[in-house]
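As the next step, I wrote out a protein sequence along with its fold in token form, included below for the reader:
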Amino acid sequence: MGVECGSDYNGGVGIRRPDDNVSAERHLPYELLALFEEMQNTKEDAVFPYRILCCLHTVGMRSFAQYDIADLFYHIWNLLIEQIPYPSLVKRLRELYVIRLKEYVTCHKCSHIQSRDLEVLTIPLLVRHSKYHRNLPLVSWYWCIYAGSEDHQSFCPKCEGNTAGQKVLRLSHLPRTLSIHLNRISQQKSSQLQKVNRPLSFPSTLDLSEVLDLEQFPEQEHNQSEYQYRLFAVVAHSGTASSGHYCAYIKSWKDQKWYCFNDSSVCKVSWDDVKCTYGNVNFHYGVMACLLVYIQGAGNKGPDIGK
């Protein structure tokens, strides 16, 4: 049996405590909700997430191990989906986070086009080294990667063999919460991993209509507000490619202020402080953004899974 759900709040589906025959410590949805409730109700600056850490350890995640932030996101997501037995709640989560892509591969030999649908939780943007050290805006970086194409080896059913092809990715559906993974890890010829310190700037508001071909989307989504996003959170990494520390900058929708969450330390920061995570070529261990979370819409209200 899994975590029970019911009409616990706002007329929607909530997560209740598992029954007496099931160990609550093994159920991530319940422990995550309990942590959020403790964070909302406490008068302290921070709470200690011992129970949820024990839960993650119990279900197979190693403690005190270095994780890529996108891999950690996927792992926790899969655990949540597996342990929530109610399709309506799973559907709401998918509407909130899942990004749909269309991949096209055109065979160079016979021009046959293959396509397939992909679902991801983050848009991966690889931050590459540059000898010019120029700052690259997020929208320009997206355009370089997703509006362009790359050579790709794949099986062509028409040629009946592996041939070189041109691969193009296109966004086909935008979720209400758009997560962008800034991958700053590159592998050198010596097989060693290196962190890329190249500056990459990101805006507080993001207009994807500037880079998207709106004809890719269904007519009902051709609403300008569907492509307007505002920055909600930045997860930043300090350290090297093989070790380091994460902290998070999150915007409060109550007072419209930014806060830095760094272990037990929580403090108010400015937008200029957040922009310091753009990166710097002189940084060796400095704090640099690795995950951006944008929320659809231009208003000040935060995400609401119940809608």
Q: What stands out?
A: The mean pLDDT is 79. The chain is about 20% helix and 35% strand. The longest strand covers residues 161-173. The two ends are 27 Å apart (CA to CA).
